[in-house]
């Protein structure tokens, strides 16, 4: 039983760290390409939806096509209430699994009779622990999932999956960047007059 608890805690830590704001194996919440000095292209993505691979592919192509663009990626965080619910569930899950393994009846503490599902969990500890673990992880991931894939160039939004409902194709993104770069070059060439 002790090995099951250790395995479940370790798996939970791996899942939570993967769903956190870590995009490239970097401990911080941002993945940066520091060597570029041009405009800043920022991706805010939902890591739990699996958009990390899409971000990495876009980053690779864009850095080859536009070597002067700085590219950053970060996790698009959900609303605070959903983050708090996910954090609470993470702790509650571990406490509940611990109570199941130890065999303590939390209902007796409140002077209540244990429901039949608790009695079933005491008779089937392995299944009960796995059920608690996977169900709570499913709810946690749903709370942390935003579905976002937001792109800004110099803090100006150029694409929003939350508004459009879909990811940009590579061709669309390159066309947007081409247009923005041409506009920036054109704006830089206009002489600035002081009033």
From TrEMBL:
Q: What PANTHER family has UniProt attached to this entry?
A: SELENOPROTEIN T, THIOREDOXIN REDUCTASE-LIKE SELENOPROTEIN T
Tell me where in or outside the cell this protein is found: Endoplasmic reticulum membrane
Q: Which residues form a coiled coil?
A: none
Q: What is this protein called?
A: Selenoprotein T
Please give the function described in this protein's UniProt entry: Selenoprotein with thioredoxin reductase-like oxidoreductase activity. Protects dopaminergic neurons against oxidative stress and cell death. Involved in ADCYAP1/PACAP-induced calcium mobilization and neuroendocrine secretion. Plays a role in fibroblast anchorage and redox regulation. In gastric smooth muscle, modulates the contraction processes through the regulation of calcium release and MYLK activation. In pancreatic islets, involved in the control of glucose homeostasis, contributes to prolonged ADCYAP1/PACAP-induced insulin secretion.
As its record notes, the protein acts as a catalyst of: [thioredoxin]-dithiol + NADP(+) = [thioredoxin]-disulfide + NADPH + H(+)
Q: Which family does it belong to?
A: Belongs to the SelWTH family. Selenoprotein T subfamily.
Keywords of this entry: Endoplasmic reticulum, Membrane, NADP, Oxidoreductase, Redox-active center, Selenocysteine, Signal
Q: What is the lineage of its organism?
A: Eukaryota, Metazoa, Chordata, Craniata, Vertebrata
Q: Where is the signal peptide?
A: 1-19
Which Pfam families does this entry report, sorted A to Z?
Rdx
One GO biological process this protein is involved in is: pancreas development
Molecular function terms, GO-annotated: thioredoxin-disulfide reductase (NADPH) activity
Gene Ontology CC: one annotated term:
endoplasmic reticulum membrane
Where does this protein chiefly localize? Answer: endoplasmic reticulum
Q: Which InterPro entries match?
A: Selenoprotein_Rdx-typ, Selenoprotein_T, Thioredoxin-like_sf
């Amino acid at each position: 039983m002790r090995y099951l608890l250790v395995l479940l805690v370790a798996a939970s830590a791996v899942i939570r760290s993967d769903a956190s704001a870590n995009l490239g194996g970097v401990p911080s919440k941002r993945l940066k390409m520091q060597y570029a000095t041009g405009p800043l292209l920022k991706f805010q993505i939902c890591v739990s939806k699996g958009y990390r691979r899409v971000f990495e592919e876009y980053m690779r192509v864009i850095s080859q096509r536009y070597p002067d663009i700085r590219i950053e990626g970060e996790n698009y965080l959900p609303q605070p209430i959903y983050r708090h619910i996910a954090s609470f569930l993470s702790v509650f899950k571990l406490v509940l699994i611990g109570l199941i393994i130890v065999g303590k009846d939390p209902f007796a503490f409140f002077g209540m009779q244990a429901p039949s599902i608790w009695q079933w969990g005491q008779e089937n500890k392995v299944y009960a622990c796995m059920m608690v673990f996977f169900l709570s992880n499913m709810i946690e991931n749903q709370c942390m999932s935003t579905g976002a894939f937001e792109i800004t160039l110099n803090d100006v939004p150029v694409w929003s999956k939350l508004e459009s409902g879909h990811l940009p194709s590579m061709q669309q993104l390159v066309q947007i960047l081409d247009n923005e770069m041409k506009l920036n070059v054109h704006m830089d060439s206009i002489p600035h007059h002081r009033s």
